[in-house]
């Protein structure tokens, strides 16, 4: 192997057509032991408040249709009971 010093890129090992970078030195790596990690840290607390926030923002989209449906079903049940009573049958017969 022939080495040469290139002022632009630094020291290279190998011939110019077959260049190889030198092995890097002084690279620091850090690791955390698996038993020291907390993958669900704060998940329960965040889930409660995040669920409350999401529900609070969806109330105006969900509740009004249910109120309208409840009012319509209530009216339909009352009307059905009236039409099947004596007074309702007498009114529809006329």
UniProtKB/TrEMBL annotation:
GO terms for biological process: mitochondrial electron transport, ubiquinol to cytochrome c. GO terms for cellular component: mitochondrial inner membrane; respiratory chain complex III. It is a single-pass membrane protein. Keywords: Electron transport, Membrane, Mitochondrion, Mitochondrion inner membrane, Respiratory chain, Transmembrane, Transmembrane helix, Transport. InterPro entries: Cyt_bc1_su8, Cyt_bc1_su8_sf. It is found in: Mitochondrion inner membrane. Gene3D superfamilies: Cytochrome b-c1 complex subunit 8. The keyword Membrane applies. The chain crosses the membrane at residues 59-76. Component of the ubiquinol-cytochrome c oxidoreductase (cytochrome b-c1 complex, complex III, CIII), a multisubunit enzyme composed of 3 respiratory subunits cytochrome b, cytochrome c1 and Rieske protein, 2 core protein subunits, and additional low-molecular weight protein subunits. The complex exists as an obligatory dimer and forms supercomplexes (SCs) in the inner mitochondrial membrane with cytochrome c oxidase (complex IV, CIV). Belongs to the UQCRQ/QCR8 family. Component of the ubiquinol-cytochrome c oxidoreductase, a multisubunit transmembrane complex that is part of the mitochondrial electron transport chain which drives oxidative phosphorylation. The complex plays an important role in the uptake of multiple carbon sources present in different host niches. This is Cytochrome b-c1 complex subunit 8.
């Amino acid at each position: 192997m022939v080495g040469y010093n290139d002022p632009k890129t630094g020291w290279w090992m190998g011939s110019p057509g077959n260049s190889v970078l030198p092995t890097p030195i002084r690279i620091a790596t850090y690791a955390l032991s698996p038993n020291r990690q907390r993958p669900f840290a704060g998940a329960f607390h965040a889930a409660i408040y995040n669920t409350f926030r999401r529900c609070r923002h969806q109330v105006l989209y969900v509740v009004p249709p249910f109120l309208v449906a409840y009012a319509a079903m209530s009216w339909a049940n009352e009307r059905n009971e009236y039409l099947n009573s004596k007074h309702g049958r007498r009114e529809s017969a006329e």
